[in-house]
Amino acid sequence: MCTGKCARFLGLTLIPLSLVCIVANALLLVPNGETAWTNHLSLQVWLMAGFIGGGLMVLCPGIAAVRAGGKGCCGAGCCGNRCRMLRSVFCSAFGVLGAIYCLSVSGTGLRSGPYCLVNGTWDYHFEETLGSYLLNRTQWDLCEKPPGVVYWNVTLFSLLVAASCLEIVLCGVQLVNAAIGVFCGDCRKEVGRREVEL
């Protein structure tokens, strides 16, 4: 597969993943779909890892990868898209950092649990369990407010962890693919020549 086609495929995969992270982070701001709990959200929600890290910082390399798989800087691929591939190298490295940020914050959010009300006290009541509360659903009902916050956080932070892991892999692959594209071009000319010869 040409580096250009590979870049386009990876970019078109990264863009929806980044949008999933943005939406997941937005939903974390409204536990159980209610806006009344904005003063009682966990620190990991306010760090906006899904919006900034897995979202915007990965959207940039996704768009750059799609552009790197386009027709070329001069419109006909005369330079083998080397300029766009070089830009995609830097963007992909930026995307890896963003996805790592999203993964680390979301993982911490899962491990610590939500900030919730138990027996009249607001705190991170699952922090000392070191994540073992995830396997014991009977503990989830201990949180009185916000209602259903444990289900909400576990689902959305798990989604962010899964999406950011995929983003790290895809941005890493695009980093290598774009580096190859910088040195070898995107093989578009060779494909064109073969078609003419046939």
Short synopsis of the structure:
The protein is mainly α.
Folded structure, characterized:
The chain has a two-stranded antiparallel sheet. It has 6 helices and 2 strands, in the order H-H-H-H-E-E-H-H. Helix 1 packs antiparallel against helix 3, helix 1 runs antiparallel to helix 5 and helix 3 runs parallel beside helix 5. The chain has one domain (3-32, 44-197). It has 198 residues and is mainly alpha-helical. Residues 191-198 have low confidence and may be disordered.
Features:
two-stranded antiparallel ribbon; 198 residues; 6 helices; disordered C terminus; 3% strand; mainly alpha
List the helices and strands and how they pair.
Blueprint lengths: L2 H26 L14 H4 L2 H20 L13 H31 L3 E3 L2 E3 L25 H36 L3 H10 L1
Antiparallel strand pairs: 1-2
| Major sheet size, sense and barrel closure | 2 strands, antiparallel
Which sequence of strands runs across the widest sheet?
1-2
Strand content: under 5%
| First and last CA, distance | 19 Å
Kindly state the percentage of residues in helix. 55-70%
Write the element-wise H/E pattern from the N-terminal end onward: HHHHEEHH
Look at the helices and sheets and give the structural class.
mainly alpha
The domain count comes to 1
With helices defined by DSSP (H or I, 4 residues minimum), what is the helix count?
6
Radius of gyration: 21 Å
Oligomer: single chain
The overall strand count is 2
GO cellular component, one term: lysosomal membrane
InterPro entries: L6_membrane
Pfam families: L6_membrane (PF05805)
Keywords: Membrane, Transmembrane, Transmembrane helix
